[in-house]
Specification:
18 helices, 25 strands, Beta-Lactamase, disordered N terminus, alpha+beta
């Protein structure tokens, strides 16, 4: 039996000293080569666990170029080391481990290393072609050495995680930028999957989308899956045990198939996939914000296996990114369709994005915000704070809002100022986020000036008659109701009048509706020139108008009615072909305390109008609550 010389431990100690300045791969590769040389080992490697409990390990450094990159742990001599104790196997190693047989190694010496929780995370393996008996002093040296290896692997793992996170964020940003530029969805999704495959060589990714009825899945992206296999990925049923993707869509949960060749979920489908060298499939449902199934993301492997914790994290992040991209495209498609249908009514503008500190200072300013404030360069905003751009600056209110801003977005409406002094209406969404040790505020400002103008125009159209500019029937009745209740409550006088243009149908029939419209407009102008600000007038149909006169007695109402009659009669329409002008009939009544509703009061004025028309037109008639009617003195 061969044993190491006592100088082996001393040589290893010297090796440790020589490698103190090295880090990363340089340290690990120098170390395994040095150990092999100093101890006469034919093969030395360092492994790291890929999952917990450990079933697969990665070879992170090896003295033999032909060594595998990773291997399944069960059944190998290394499995004993992962139990947490040094292991020495003096013969028969080649029978249990194919790589050892290829290198004609019969003896194995393994030392574990651990994480902070005491769990074995990897090991140092030494293989000898002849029997080997290590001296007692070697264990202490190797224990010290494995601690250094463990620390370096932890550092490398941390660095790799950071690098991976940076690469992933950069990759996600590129994908989101492409989506923001509205590149074709299939193109964006294929680039997304290709990025994942480049990070995981030997994997093939796919995305499937449910049909409109939610009963089947169809392929929408699979950049490297064999064409022969993708032809089968049509109308995959969404049900239990329907492969990986069909089952994930059915259950709403991730499905991990470690070996397609043996798993029962693939019984009906394995003959379609195995000829293409695909052996495992991990499927993740992708849900929209409302919880509905958006898609199913899958990673196919050319070897059987289950994902590591890092790979699970990757799968979940890809699903989230896919959901975001597809939600963006769905929203964009909806907006495009809405804009197409309602482009005459909608006004869109680019949102302005800014980042502020809690002192209101600008950290980031988008081009959209520059356009909103009428600036062409960020230097034009230098030295200003967010409240300086408010039409009515209130520094105290802004500071209060910024100091209490949280991660939950809040909406506010303000009126903002441009560089040229004009104002614009803004809807602003604000939310806080942490940037290291400081709190910043993200805000998105949307110019809603046009929308507010349209809302005001819609309100005007809903309130006023489009031809005359007077109250329409609905608005007049609403205003009359309010005045009726006020006058009743305070026992104050109220007069109501109805007016009809005499023989208006003949004007339309003889001279046309355009002439009739001009007559209505000029008659309406005569009303507004005669009435007080507190009086109300509306066009309630055709050539018929209604008035209410607060704080007006019978004498006052008669005077107003006569002035209106005379003003109408004095209008000159000779240029329209009306040589004799136009005349009107007016009926009025007064609130006398026994009217149950404002409609009843208006109805009584209407009766007086009909009495005036029946009495020969171009006159004024007064109706009292007892239905007695009287003519006022008018010209005929």
């Amino acid at each position: 039996m061969r044993t190491s010389s006592p100088s082996g431990s001393t040589a290893l100690s010297a090796l440790i000293q020589r490698t103190l300045h090295l880090t990363g791969d340089a340290f690990l590769n120098t170390l395994v080569a040095g150990i092999a040389r100093e101890l006469g080992a034919h093969w030395v490697f360092i492994t790291r666990a890929l999952d917990f409990p450990t079933t697969r390990v990665a070879v992170v450094a090896s003295s033999q170029q032909s060594s595998p990159k990773s291997f399944a742990l069960p059944g190998t001599p290394c499995a004993l080391v992962y139990l947490g104790q040094p292991v020495l196997i003096e013969h028969g190693v080649s029978e249990r481990f194919e790589p050892a047989r290829a290198l004609a190694c019969e003896t194995f010496l393994g030392y574990p290393f651990f994480d902070g929780a005491g769990q074995c995370t990897g090991h140092l393996g030494l293989f000898f072609q002849t029997p080997y008996q290590p001296p007692a002093s070697l264990e202490a040296t190797l224990t010290l050495l494995t601690k250094r290896i463990s620390a370096e692997l932890l550092r490398l793992d941390t660095q790799n995680r950071l690098d991976s996170t940076r690469r992933r964020l950069d990759f996600q940003n590129r994908i989101l930028q492409q989506a923001a530029r509205h590149a074709p969805l299939t193109e964006v999704l294929n680039k997304l999957l290709l990025g994942i495959e480049q990070e995981r060589p030997g994997s093939h990714c796919s995305l499937m989308q449910p049909t409109a009825d939610g009963k089947q899945l169809n392929l929408i992206a699979a950049p490297t899956l064999p064409t022969g296999y993708t032809q089968h990925l049509r109308n995959i049923p969404i049900r239990d045990q329907a492969g990986s993707c069909g089952t994930a869509a059915f259950s709403g949960e991730r499905v991990i198939i470690d070996d397609i060749a043996t798993h029962p979920y693939w019984t009906r489908f394995r003959e379609k996939v195995l000829p293409y060298g695909l052996r495992s499939c991990w499927s993740q449902p992708v849900h929209a914000a409302d919880g509905t199934l958006e898609a199913v993301f899958a990673i196919y492997q050319e070897q059987p296996g289950t994902p590591t914790a890092e790979e699970i994290e990757l799968i979940e992040s890809v699903a989230a990114l896919v959901s975001l991209v597809m939600e963006n495209y769905r929203t964009t498609a909806s907006l495009i369709e809405t804009t197409r249908r309602y482009k005459l009514f909608l006004h869109t503008s680019a949102d302005g994005i800014i980042v502020l500190n809690q002192e209101g200072e600008f950290i980031e300013i988008s081009d959209g915000f520059l356009r909103q404030v009428g600036a062409t360069d960020r230097a034009q905003l230098a030295g200003t704070r967010i409240w300086d751009w408010d039409a009515q600056p209130d520094e105290t209110a802004y500071r209060e809002r910024l100091s209490h801003c949280s991660e939950t977005p809040v909406m506010l409406s303000t009126r903002q100022r441009r560089l040229d002094g004009t104002n614009w209406d803004a809807e602003i969404s604000m939310a806080a986020f942490q940037d290291g040790q400081r709190t910043l505020i993200w805000a998105s400002a949307r110019d809603v000036s046009e929308r507010k103008r349209m809302e005001a125009e819609l309100l005007r159209r809903a309130t006023y008659d489009a031809l005359t500019g007077l109250f329409n029937r609905g608005s007049f009745m609403h205003a009359l109701s309010a005045e009726f209740q006020r006058s009743q409550r305070h026992a104050r006088p109220l007069a109501v009048m109805m007016l009809d243009i005499d023989h208006f149908k003949q004007i339309n029939d003889r001279l046309g509706h355009h002439t009739g419209d001009v007559v209505l407009q000029q008659v309406a102008s005569a009303f507004t020139d005669t009435l007080r600000q507190e009086d109300g007038v509306g066009r309630i149909g055709g050539e018929e108008f209604a008035f209410f006169l607060p704080e007006t007695t019978a004498e006052g109402a008669a005077e107003v009615a006569e002035r209106i009659r005379q003003r109408v009669a004095a209008l000159d329409f000779r240029d329209l072909g009306l040589q004799e002008g136009v005349r009107c009939s007016i009926g009025y009544t007064l609130l006398e305390g026994d009217e149950p509703t404002h409609e009843a009061l208006l109805s009584r004025a209407d009766h007086a109008l009909y009495a005036a028309k029946a009495g020969g037109r171009n006159r004024i008639c007064h109706t009292q609550s007892n239905d007695e009617q009287s003519d006022d003195d008018t010209g005929r």
